[in-house]
Design a protein that fits this description.
Length: about 270
């Protein structure tokens, strides 16, 4: 390679790195501005619009309630319970969902048979099924695992199947013209094409995992964010209740940002 070509390549790399840094900086700035705007509106509403402390309290009161739970150690107990439930159940749901989606996309008849069942289960509110899982599996980890798994798996199945079926026929024909095997076509054409769909489903499922964990803890638990929210509501402790809601929101935001970054990393050819 000539010196001019090397210099040109180096320049392109620097430009790409600079654009990536600008994207991260702009994303962080937007998120920070959104949080600040929310806190300002929340504080003004609590001080001047809704002055009933049983309904809404200022953010500073919420922070004080969380500090109290940090000092007495309760927040660590609840965080451990909820995070354990999510970070064990969620990866299993992703693996099962992608696997089932791949199987359904490879067999059109099987996909047509399974579609009504998938949509039926996807449409059933988990609040209606959570008591059954608690009755079947008890108040321990098993019931939480089953509920979160069931809540998360269906969006991933659907988006994986749709993504694989949506692969551009031009790319498939091009791969076949080079005598690519079915496995090569899947790994180099179909799966990369479906990745944005799959990660989109994973992002939706992560938010549902938070909801599933809280719902499961509402119906039966000894610790967790849902348990803490329910206890705070029964004691009319609005500040503590909102504190754990904020923690769930922060966890959801961090999960969405991380999965978005993963999508950019795994699909660099896509434009934002």
């Amino acid at each position: 390679m000539s010196a001019a070509a090397e210099a040109k390549s180096s320049a392109y790399e620097k430009i790409g790195l600079g654009l990536a840094q600008d994207t991260w900086k702009s994303t962080l700035l937007r998120n920070a501005l959104s949080v600040v705007l929310l806190l300002v509106v929340w504080d003004l509403a609590a001080r001047y619009l809704i002055q009933n402390k049983l309904i809404l309290v200022p953010p500073i009161n919420v922070l004080r309630a969380l500090v109290i739970d940090v000092q007495n150690g309760e927040i660590w107990q609840h965080s451990y319970a909820t995070l354990l439930e999510i970070f064990v159940s969620f990866p299993v749901a992703v693996a099962i969902g992608v696997l089932i989606g791949v199987v359904l996309s490879s067999n059109r008849l099987l996909g047509q048979i399974a579609e009504p069942l998938l949509m039926a289960f996807y449409s059933v509110p988990m609040v209606a099924l959570a008591p059954l899982f608690i009755a079947w599996l008890g108040l321990g980890f098993a019931s939480k695992f089953a509920i979160i798994l069931l809540v998360c798996v269906f969006p991933i199945i659907i988006t994986t199947e749709v993504g694989l079926r949506s692969t551009d026929k031009v790319y498939l024909d091009a791969a076949k013209s080079f005598n690519a095997t079915s496995w090569q076509i899947f790994t180099t054409v179909q799966f990369p094409f479906a990745l944005p769909y799959i990660i989109g489903g994973v992002r939706v499922s992560f938010a549902r995992a938070l909801v599933g964990a809280v719902v499961a803890e509402f119906f039966g638990a000894f610790a967790g964010y849902g348990y803490a929210i329910l206890a705070a509501g029964q004691n009319f402790n609005t500040a503590r209740l909102l504190g754990y809601v904020v923690l769930l929101a922060v966890l959801g935001m961090l999960g969405s940002i991380s999965l978005r970054a993963l999508e950019r990393r795994m699909t660099p050819w896509r434009e934002d």
